[in-house]
Structure formats: C-alpha cells, structure tokens
C-alpha cells in the first residue's frame, strides 16, 4: 500500500506547484486577486482542470492506504472527501467573473450558472476540510510532534479559510493571496502526512 501513500503525497504537492507556476505565467491573470479556480478558464484552462481532477484522484487513492498506515478510519475518510471535492472542483468550473478571462466584466455576474453553483459547493467542502482534516489528526495521531504540528496547521488554515471567505465577498485585491496561503498550508501538511504513513 506504500505506493498509494506516495501517490497521495505527490498529488498534494503537485497541485500546489502547478497552480503557482500557472498563475505566475498566465497572461492577464492576477494571482494576488484572482482565485485558483479561475485558472480553469480561458485557453489554458485545461491545465488547472487537469490539476484539480488528477491531483484530487491521487489524494483519494492515497487515502485508501491511510487506515492501515495510521490505524484510524475517520482521518482517511476526511482525506478522501477532500480529494473528491478537488475532483468535483475540476469537473464543475466557475463562471468567468471579476475581469478574468480578459474581456470579462469586472463585477460578479447577475446570475450564476448551475455549474458555478456546484463548483461553489465543492469549494466549500475543500475549505472546510483543509482545517478539519488536521484537526482530526490532532486526536488520531499518537506522536506529540504530529499532534502539535497538526493543531497549528488546523488553527492557521481555519483562520486563513475564514479570512478568504470575507475577502472574497468584498472582492479584495488580496483574495488570491489568502486563498493560496490556505491551500498551501493544508496540502503541504497533507503531503507530509502521507509520507509519515509510508515511513
């Protein structure tokens, strides 16, 4: 089952790497303001769509091996749900809005498509599980280092996730920064968890 844990770690870290590089090299895309999901729009949108689906599947595959590796069931279920929510985020794209792709009005659309609403629901699950999963790990893992480390990550991602929601509603120019901080903290920790299970 160890190869599945390695796949889970790869999916966690690859997701971060792809959206960071794609966002920094995408013409007219503003990583500080625009969300990661907006990368699934436009001519190069296939790259982030693939990133959502492939990395979500890798994380879900890794979750299959976690019960045996960690001796716990609730934590792997949370990890699997997070992976599947990432897959759903790729299957259902957000609507063009807030100036991206280029030529899109700078405001939110008056009405959102059903696909956008499903994307929003998937995103809500992702940003709920990013802090909830390490919180579960606080009680599921016996190592003091992992208990304290997971607690710190749970608190940090909870604060960042809440701040992201508020900044998104205000269309803050720093919405993308806070969203990326949330994702990087949560998925970097998750990748380390998979390797911990493989050790």
From TrEMBL:
<protein>
    <submittedName>
        <fullName>DUF998 domain-containing protein</fullName>
    </submittedName>
</protein>
<feature type="transmembrane region" description="Helical">
    <location>
        <begin position="45"/>
        <end position="67"/>
    </location>
</feature>
<dbReference type="InterPro" id="IPR009339">
    <property type="entry name" value="DUF998"/>
</dbReference>
<feature type="transmembrane region" description="Helical">
    <location>
        <begin position="6"/>
        <end position="24"/>
    </location>
</feature>
<dbReference type="Pfam" id="PF06197">
    <property type="entry name" value="DUF998"/>
</dbReference>
<keyword id="KW-0812">Transmembrane</keyword>
<feature type="transmembrane region" description="Helical">
    <location>
        <begin position="121"/>
        <end position="140"/>
    </location>
</feature>
<feature type="transmembrane region" description="Helical">
    <location>
        <begin position="73"/>
        <end position="92"/>
    </location>
</feature>
<keyword id="KW-0472">Membrane</keyword>
<keyword id="KW-1133">Transmembrane helix</keyword>
<feature type="transmembrane region" description="Helical">
    <location>
        <begin position="146"/>
        <end position="165"/>
    </location>
</feature>
<feature type="transmembrane region" description="Helical">
    <location>
        <begin position="177"/>
        <end position="198"/>
    </location>
</feature>
């Amino acid at each position: 089952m160890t190869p599945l844990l390695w796949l889970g770690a790869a999916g966690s870290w690859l997701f971060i790497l792809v959206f960071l590089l794609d966002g920094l090299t995408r013409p007219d895309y503003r990583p500080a303001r625009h969300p990661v999901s907006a990368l699934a729009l436009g001519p190069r949108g296939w790259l982030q769509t693939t990133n959502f689906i492939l990395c979500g599947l890798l994380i879900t595959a890794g979750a299959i091996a976690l019960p045996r590796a960690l001796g716990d069931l609730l934590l792997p279920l949370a990890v699997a749900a997070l992976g599947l929510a990432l897959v759903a985020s790729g299957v259902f794209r957000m609507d063009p809005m807030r100036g991206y792709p280029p030529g899109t009005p700078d405001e939110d659309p008056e009405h959102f498509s059903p696909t956008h609403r499903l994307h929003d629901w998937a995103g809500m699950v992702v940003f709920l599980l990013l802090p909830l999963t390490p919180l579960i790990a606080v009680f599921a893992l016996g190592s003091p280092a992992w208990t304290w480390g997971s607690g710190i990550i749970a608190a940090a991602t909870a604060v960042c996730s809440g701040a992201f929601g508020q900044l998104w509603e205000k269309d803050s120019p720093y919405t993308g920064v806070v969203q990326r901080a949330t994702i990087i903290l949560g998925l970097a920790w998750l990748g380390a968890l998979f390797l911990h299970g493989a050790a």
